[in-house]
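Your task
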Amino acid sequence: MNAIKNKLFKVVLFFSLTFFCTSVQNSMAEPEKYRTSPDPVAVMADGVLVRPLGVVSTVIGSVFYVITLPFTIPSDSADTARQQLVEYPAWFTFQRPIGNFGHRYKRANIIEEKRALAKSLEEERTKEKQKDSQATPPPPPPEVVQ
């Protein structure tokens, strides 16, 4: 009798654990669809581990950028080296949303956008200066008759 109770207990325990384990996984998977903020574990890992490593990476990248300047200036690739060794690690560390690791692959090239904007502004200023220099001078003031 004791052996039958023991087997029955084990079977009931097995099926109940199986049922609850599968139902917990399904219920845990549901909130992911509705989550609008990053995962709290990702935020903690980002703040405690990744951001400090990003600061170190930015500093090391800056050192390597300075070391490679004698080679990158003659080959006209100093901008590329600065982007990859300094600007991207700095962006990843200081401007990326916390806990959002996938965002780095989706971001537009902010530096190139800033350069394009600066170039277009400079072109507009040049055009305005050309218009001003080509414009006819204002007529002289009328003479006062006394």
